[in-house]
Recover the amino acids of this structure.
């Protein structure tokens, strides 16, 4: 990865994405994702949308988070003792308690036992036995990369909207990318964030 970090973070502050004084946690969070994007050879457009997605999904912290909600909320939504037992079984949550154990974690919420198992196979980390590993920043970034590339979250993939090598993208392209993660929820807002991160990446001379 070639990136002038000072120039990138200066523009991030100017665009009111983070700061005005950056915390070490914010810097580290961005750097973990940038390293994962570089390893995957993401161009400016994909990298900008990845940063914008993390920014939104983590509440602007750029650090992996656990899904919000009480144990009862998670049980009801994901457990075989909850409101969708057949779907829970289909998604690998076959034992009482799996709904809480395999609830969402990460920059983008990795949810359901089958998806933890898939990430384990792809990345060689014991995520089924230790699902909290999905909160490790470097691993969370790699999960996000593969998930957005391969359609883990909704079946939609980045390549369906722009090529990997894409540079600047129209805001409308960023808006249309939202179904990769969550339908059309906050699509316009996240597209605006992507546009700002794109500007910061270009200011920093992003190349892979």
């Amino acid at each position: 990865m070639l990136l002038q970090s000072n120039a990138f973070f200066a523009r991030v502050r100017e665009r009111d994405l983070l700061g005005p004084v950056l915390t070490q946690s914010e810097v580290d969070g961005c750097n973990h994702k940038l390293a994962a994007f570089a390893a995957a050879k993401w161009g400016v457009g994909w990298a900008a949308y990845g940063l914008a997605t993390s920014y939104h999904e983590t509440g602007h912290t750029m650090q992996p988070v656990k899904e919000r909600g009480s144990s009862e909320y998670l049980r009801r939504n994901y457990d075989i003792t909850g409101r969708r037992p057949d779907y829970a079984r289909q998604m690998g949550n076959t034992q009482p308690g799996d709904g809480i154990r395999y609830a969402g974690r990460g920059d983008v919420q990795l949810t359901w036992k089958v998806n933890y198992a898939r990430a384990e196979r792809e990345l060689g980390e014991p995520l089924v036995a230790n699902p909290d590993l999905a909160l490790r920043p470097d691993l969370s970034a790699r999960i996000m990369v593969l998930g957005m590339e391969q359609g883990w979250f909704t079946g939609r993939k980045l390549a369906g909207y722009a090529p990997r090598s894409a540079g600047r993208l129209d805001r409308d392209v960023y808006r249309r990318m939202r179904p990769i993660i969550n339908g059309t929820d906050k699509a316009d807002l996240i597209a605006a964030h992507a546009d700002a991160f794109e500007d910061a990446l270009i200011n920093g001379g992003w190349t892979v």
Summary: The two ends are 5 Å apart (CA to CA). The mean pLDDT is 96.
